[in-house]
Structure formats: structure tokens, C-alpha cells
Amino acid sequence: MRTPSPSQTQDEHSRASLELLYHISRELASALDLHEVLERILQLSVESVGGISGSIIVLDNHGNPVDSAMIHSGQVYNQTTDRLMDTIDKGLAGWVLQSREPVLIRDTSIDERWTKRPDDAPDRTGAKSAVSAPLLARQNLVGVITLVHPSPYTFNESHLELVQAIADVAGIAVLNARLYTESQNRARVMAALAESSLAITAALGAKDILQRVLEQVHQALQVEAVSLALITADKTELVIKAATGPVADEVIGLRLKMGEGIAGWVAREGKGAITPDTKKEPQFNQKVDRRTGFETRAIACAPIRSKGETIGVLEAINPVNGTFDPDALLLLNGIGSLAGSVLEQDQLLASLQAAKQSFQELFEDSIDPIVITDWEGNIVDVNRPATFAARRTKKELLGMTIHDLHEIDFEKVGGPQFSNLSKHEMAYYESALRPTPDTNIPIEVYVRQIILDEKKHLQWILRDISERKRLDTLRDDLISMIYHDLRSPLSNVLYSMDILASMLADESEKYKTLIDVAVRSAERIQRLTSSLLDIKRLEAGHSVLNRAPIEVVDIFVDAVDAIHPLAESKKQKVHTILPTGLPTLNVDGDMIRRVIINLLENAVKYTPVGCNITLGVAELEGGLEFWVEDDGPGIEPEQRDAIFNKYARLQKGGIGIGLGLAFCRLAVEGHGGRIWVESEVGKGSRFTFVLPVDETETAGEAIPL
Ligand code: ADP
User: Among 606, 641, 663, 686, which residue has the most ligand 1 atoms within 8 Å of its CB, making it the best to mutate?
Assistant: First the structure.
């Protein structure tokens, strides 16, 4: 294109203008890169209007310069905003922006709107005349274009018009390109943040996290140094925890007071800030630079936030290309809040790991073998005692199932699906551990659901009860021995007493009483030995064999007679409720008699002097209900089931060995019946048992015995 000289005719000007505008609009229609747009506008304008140099300044929505370009002798320079600040602040560009009017300066030496530079002196080649116009797009001021010429009076009104026409076309193109650049920057920030988030969350320990944060800032902002400081627990200081750059090692560990310097200010205010020139910033504190010898020229600083609170700051120092991008703070803020949430997660993770560690210690230190399985029963963890008990290594056990170790009581756990355990219940049963095919270790099993790594698991405690079982067997053996050794001599004693009593003359009443006492005592021992034998038999699963028809009244008479002297010695009254017309029982009469005597003896034994005891019977549909009631001390609720177990005794060092009620339960259940106790502590107890009968008859009235 030919460069028109200012002396050409008006027609030529108009043609040139149209040609130029056509070029500009065609060229700019598709250009989106802001620098490219600025460069083309400048080149085309200088070529068409004339002049040796020119500039374009681009403004953001708030009227602040965000980009610029200059052309001089055909050469285009970008990022010149710093150099153009003078003209924006107090020169021609500023004037045009303010007035939104184009300006023609025929002679720069006599126009005060022109800021004079040394280069503009008459003997130098600087600007002697200038034209400048605002770039407007849809009423928005988006920039200013200025062209200058080294000779005064070069430009005239038509040049001014041409520049304004160019500015009008260029305004839209610049706005589009600026918006595009902004959206590109935003996308870049988003991408950098997404990348940082991935890199930071992939880090494991806090130290690692801090290092990753610094690397991300370094990469995203292209700066000489980065540092990260955290606020101390008492919130009075900031401690630099991590740093990169030439003096990184020296700054780590340095402390800054809250509010001191730029970092201290950001930490206190919780707001990010960019300091383009530290020399012009009174808040800047030289303490750290003096110590390290490093020169901090520009700082971008953002808070690190966690749960809405500032916990530290991130500082990016000295951008490599001189100034921070406008989006630097946005990016730094983003990385700061990412770092905050990751540090927070890390803290949670640390406490979770501590909890896990203490669980692991408890697990390992337990004296009981513990096995953890999944819901299918596959073993996923075992403690050391479990490896000893199972006589296998942990590795071997991890390939096995809980079924391989012992037989599960499915009734207790709710079938193979362990349905009882999913309701947070604990199941208990006895079983045997089979570490080898020929070993059986008796165990009691406590199993319940636990949550491990957010998944449901089962925890099996397999407690070795060999020692307890050994003692039980010893006790059983001892009891059998006593029984066998006592039975025949006792029968002899009773037989001899009987003969002795019949041989005594009627007048020997006092001897008869003595013999009676001896007989009763011997009978008690006999009842005890018989009950011991029954316990053994019934426990072994034998059924009641000696069934014979017997009237309830006979059992009652014998039972009351047996305990009568004992009750009398404690001044206790024994009442009976015995309706007439009861059906005949078909039972082992001796056994049921001993059950009732046992209940009556307990009532006598465990109630104080003067208490009342009632023995009663009532007919039910299909059975008879017997009960022994007292107004003694009663039994605590949690003991009411346990007292029917063997060797269960509530009063330590008292009378009895805790077998009486165990016998009663075995005997009643052996007859297809049921026994239980109801009690109110301090008021008394009522032991009831029900025996089934085949035929029922109408119950009569209570008769006194
Ligand atoms: P023993 O009488 O030999 O201790 P039992 O099996 O007959 O054994 O009884 C078990 C426990 O139940 C007793 O030790 C006692 O503590 C409690 N017990 C039984 N009967 C009564 C009762 N009528 N009142 C209060 N406690 C009782």
C-alpha cells in the first residue's frame, strides 16, 4: 500500500480512508488475538495516516490499562503499558480518554496536552505533531490510539477524521479480542487450578502437600520464588513452612508477626494483594530481604483458607517477565483455598490414622485371639494371639475362612447370612477351635459387626476356655466320686435307722426324735446325691425313665414334711395351695419331689427368720403349674437367668454349691416342662414350673395340709 502524504488532495484522502477502513475491517473481522489485533491496527494506521510512530492502549471494564502496543519505524513492541503510563496519567492519551474526543496537535511544542520528552526537542526526531482518538465499542471506552510525526503541522483535520474512523472500526475488534483474551485467561486459570488440585490431592503427607503447592504456584505464575507460611496456633505469628527459590533454605522457619509486612497483612485481613513494586509500598517489610540478601521486587500474596478461616498465606515473588498477569491473584487465591482444604483433609487423615493406629494396637495387644472377616466369612485380618491359637502364620490364615477355624452356631448368628449381626447385636456361643484335625480347643465366641475402611466386617473373638472346662470336668468328676462313694453307705445308714426305730419301745420317745433327726439328715444327703446323678444323666441327654402315676397331694405332703423342721427352726410359715380334683401326674415322682424340696429349701435358706413361704399348684390347659413363693430379699433382674446355670451362686461364701436350681431346670425340662423365676428385689421371689399332663380334670378348692 502506498503511504499518502499529508499534501495530497481531499479526494485522494477520502479514497484512501475508505480503502483503509475496508482493509481494517476485513483484517480485523476474524482476528481474536489481542496482540495481533493491536499490531495490525498500528501498522495499517501508520501506513495510511502517516507518522513514524504510534501507540494503542487497551482498557478493562474499570478503565484501567490492561494491554498496549507501540510501533516505531515499522517495528511493533508489545507489553508497553509501563512506558505509556505517563501519557495516560497526564498526557495526550489521558486527555482523550477523559474527554472521549479525538484530538489534533499540530505542534507538540506549544500544546500543553502533550507531555514533552527530551526526544521532542526541535533538533531531535521526537514527536512534533500528533493525532489521537478514543476507541469506542457500543458506548464503552476500550482504549486510545495515538499517531505522531517528527515534523510539526503534518496532521490536519482530515487526518484526525481518518484516525477517528479507524478507531471506530478498531474499537469493536479490540473489545472482542480483549474479551476473548479474558476468557482465555480464565480458562487458563481454571485449567491451572484443576491441575493443581490433582497434583495437590495426590500428595500424601502435609510436607508433601506444601511442596506440591509451591511447585504449582511456581509453574502457574512463572516467578523467581514462592513461599508458604502458616499461622501459629496462638494466631500471633506466621511461620514460613516451605519455600522455593535461591534463598529457600534460609527463609524456611522464619517468623513474621501478624499484620507485619505484606504476608502479615494478608494473613490478618484474609484478602489477597498484588504489590507490583515493593519500593513504592510502605507496608513492605525488608526484614527478610536484609537477612537473606535477596531482592523482593514484586509480590502476589493470597490467603490459605480452611473452614472459612485464614490459616496461612501463599507468596509468589518476582515474576520472571517483570509484572504479574492480572489473573495472578485469582490463580493464587484459587491455589490457596485448594491448599487449605487439602491441609484440612490431611489433618483429618492424620487423626483417622491415629485412631486406626490405636485400634491396631488394641487389636494386636489383646490377649484373646481376634479374627476379622468380611461378610462372606473370608479372613481379612488376625492378631498375633489368633496366629498362635490357630497354629498358622498370618499369611496362611488370610487365605482361609472363619468356617475353617471353628463350627459356627448358626442359630445364634442368624444363619449363614449372619442376619442377627447386621442389627448391631453381639452373638455369643461356645464352640471348638480346630487348629489341626486331631486338636480341639474349647472356645467361647463373641462375634459382632464392625466397620473397617468404611465397609462392614465381622469381628470374631475366639476366647480359649480350656482351663475353665478342665476345672468343670474336675468338679464333675469329684461330684461323681462323692456320689458313688456315699450312695451305698448312706442306704445302709438309713436302713439301720429304720430297724432301730422299729425296735425301740413306745416309751423311748426322745430316742425316736434323735433317730428322726438322723434319718432326715441322711435323707437330705441322699436327695443331694440322687440329684447329682440326675444332673449327669440329663446333661448327657438321657430321658426321664422312671415315670409312674402319682398324685400331686402325695408329692406336696412329702416335700412339706421334708423341709418342715428346717422352716420351723427359722420360725418360717409354709402355706400350701392345693386345689382338689387335680389330674394324676405321670412323672418320676422322686425327681419332681426333689425339685419342689429344692425350691422350698432355697426359700427357707435365702429368706430371713419369720418369713412366709407358699407352695402352690394350679391347673392349666394341658398342664399343671407349681410355684414356690417367698417374701425374702428377691433376686436382681440380671441374675434371674444365670441362677439356673450350674455352680451359679449369688452370695459368696454362703451355703450351697450352686447346683440345686441347675438340677431343677434339667429335671423339669426333662419332663417336657419349663421353669422360671419372677422377683421383686426386697419383696420376694416366685419360682414357677409347669409340667405337661395328658388329661385334665376340674380344679377344686384349696385344702390345708
Ligand atoms: P445353692 O442354693 O446351692 O447356692 P441354687 O442353684 O439352689 O444353689 O441357687 C442358686 C442361687 O440362687 C443361690 O445361691 C441364691 O443366691 C439364689 N436363690 C435361689 N433361691 C432363692 C430365693 N428363694 N431367694 C433369693 N435367692 C435365691
Answer: 606
